[in-house]
Amino acid sequence: MKHIFLIILLIIQVCFANDNYYYQNNNKVLLEPSISIARDSSSIDYYTNEKGIVLGVTDTLIVKFKYERNLNNYLNEFNLTLIKRLGNGLYLLKVENKNLTIDISNKLTQKVDIKYAHPNFIKNIIKR
Length: 128
Hints:
- This protein is of the alpha+beta class.
- The protein is 23% helix and 38% strand.
- The strands form two sheets. It has a five-stranded antiparallel β-sheet with strand order 1-2-3-4-9. It has a four-stranded antiparallel β-sheet with strand order 6-7-5-8, with helices on one face.
- The protein is globular and about 55 Å long.
């Protein structure tokens, strides 16, 4: 009975798996869902990266465009909302579905006219 439950659980995880990585400096950084964190807010999903750092993911992205003229195309293509212009070609964007934040940031990273895109991570400040 235990084996059947584990097999069913594994199948469910595979069926509903999202991208468990993001790009940092053109390198793939793996993420593991973190269930040890007390969920103080349902608007934040927590992950642990390869270095053991816990990252919170919400429904916002930071995107740096090479060519700003394509901004509206991507807003429409990925159903994004412009929250704020942070600098020259740098934008804070909102994803309609929080569960797609990492997936959309990875897809944007692969576009030739985007320098980088990543979730607007929430990190704990570590005092030294």
